[in-house]
Amino acid sequence: MFCLLLLLSAPLVWGHHARSPKSAVPPIALETDPQYWYDEAFEGINRIEEEVQYDEVARNIVMFLGDGLSLPTLAAARALAGQRRGAPGEETRMGFEEWPVTGLAKTYCLNAQVADSACTATAYLCGAKNNDYTIGVSGRVLPGDCKAAAEPANQLDSLLAWAIEDGRSAGIVTTTRVTHASPAGAYAHTSHRYYESDQDVREMGADLETCPDIAYQLIHSYPGNQFKVILGGGRREFRPNTTIDEEGAAGRRGDGRDLVQEWEGRLEGQDHSYVWNRTALLEATENPPEYLLGLFESGHMQYQAEAGPEEPTLEEMTTAAIKVLSSNPRGFVLFVEGGRIDHAHHDNLALLALDETVALAAAAAAAERLLQADSLLLLTADHSHVFAYNGYSPRGNDILGTAQTYEALDKLPYMTLSYTNGPGARAHIDGVRPDVTKDSDFGSLHWMSPADVPIEWETHGGEDVAVFARGPQQKLFTGLYEQSAIPHRAAYAACVGPAAEKRAACKAYRNRSSQTRLRDTLMVAPVLMAMYRYT
Ligand SMILES: *[C@@H]1O[C@H](CO)[C@@H](O)[C@H](O)[C@H]1NC(C)=O
Ligand SMILES: *[C@@H]1O[C@H](CO)[C@@H](O)[C@H](O)[C@H]1NC(C)=O
Ligand SMILES: [Zn+2]
């Protein structure tokens, strides 16, 4: 447990202990059934049916997720990107901001007014709202209830699983541990997001039989065991606590398993590659293997502004993933997370939060360059943060500086960017608000922006988040909708998953695809027969 508290995601542990469990409030009974959210999403699609282009189908989907990428974060990040180029900044358009369609998603969860990254991942990847801390399971599962999470009827398939079912490829990329809440939404079924390794399950007093850890699920359970690409941090969750990894960090597993070796063993005889540094990733990008696993840190990957030369950027990981996945003519679904915007905000580190947002924009731009018009690109956030963009400063004012022209009553400077709560709260001395511009580390990467309420880790915010879309059926993403509608709308566009059953054009698309499959089978048949003869 102590180790968990060191993690950047730890604020939720405190939050959980500090108040009575939210699950004490009985959730609205109907909403615990995932079908409720599926139907809600299908009704939403029906309402905007006139927007649907009859036979336009997305072959590929890339979903970008900025963890904690609130609208003020977006506005401030674009100002920073522009100011770094010497422009005033406000007019800057980060690539994805030019995508033709935007919408808004409501982020609350079944039992939570303000969401965490686990229930939101379930919403935007599996299409149903559930309880906070839980991932890939229905609202019938409460946090820590291993038995309920093990019930197949309570487990939800993700957009990536729907794509795999249709013969497409799937993969995940993140700057956090690959077992962290957001990417886990693509493959895990768990009653608690902190069950990342068997050791966590054990230390939290849960039963390993009914509660397989998230790393184990990624390597051995469906659909993680079908992923063609897994890139991010988190090596320690895959390695025994008796071993030291490539960069000198200890593993965390107590069961003696080396899941990286097990992944390699499972793919023996197939074209696969495990990499742990940037040089090796770039080599793999040149000559893409069929399966690629890259774990670049023991824990989360470093903030891009502080990363060493052997840490790949999110853009480089995204490029590698697309190169690998593109070998499937039937298409793919890729999930890409800029996961550390959230961590910087929790520590009131505004500059790092903005810089990570700029890095996410670069990754989205790379996807746009690499993919054709038959790819649907989405970029959204899981939840907001209590991050504010203040004052009446003139155009081009330093986005990381103090607000200008409108004086505070106490005549002291105040920042353009600050927080409602968090560790950056400073005590007033003799009733006087401190002048933070006098801090010796003012303006450095780890200088904390001021906050009002002192809280160990800044909290998420409860308002809506933006959705940007470009590609086939992009118009499905206009308007304001539940976050759980997102994967259904994407699935509808791509003719996968339950939403495809609602769309007439998908039958023809699937037939066409099965003809392709038949043709492929006929082409390999002579090879197979030849092999059969010699065995
Ligand atoms: C590894 O984990 C096991 C199981 O929890 C534990 O008994 C053992 O002491 C741990 N070893 C180390 C070196 O931490
Ligand atoms: C990167 O990984 C490869 C493959 O394991 C290794 O041979 C190489 O030395 C590593 N490069 C660096 C700079 O650590
Ligand atoms: Zn968070």
Any overview of this molecule?
- The protein is of the alpha/beta class and 535 residues long.
- It folds into 2 domains: 50-380 and 466-503, Alkaline Phosphatase, subunit A; 387-458, no CATH class.
- The chain has 18 helices and 15 strands.
- It has a 10-stranded mixed β-sheet, with helices on both faces. It has a 3-stranded mixed β-sheet with strand order 10-11-12.
- α12 links the parallel β5 (272-275) and β6 (291-295).
- α4 crosses α15.
- The longest helix is centred in the C-terminal third of the chain and has 31 residues, at 504-534.
- The radius of gyration is 23 Å and the shape is globular.
- The model is unreliable at 1-21 and 524-535 (pLDDT under 50).
- The chain binds 2-acetamido-2-deoxy-beta-D-glucopyranose (NAG) (2 copies) and zinc ion.
- Zinc ion is lined by residues 68, 117, 342, 346, 460.
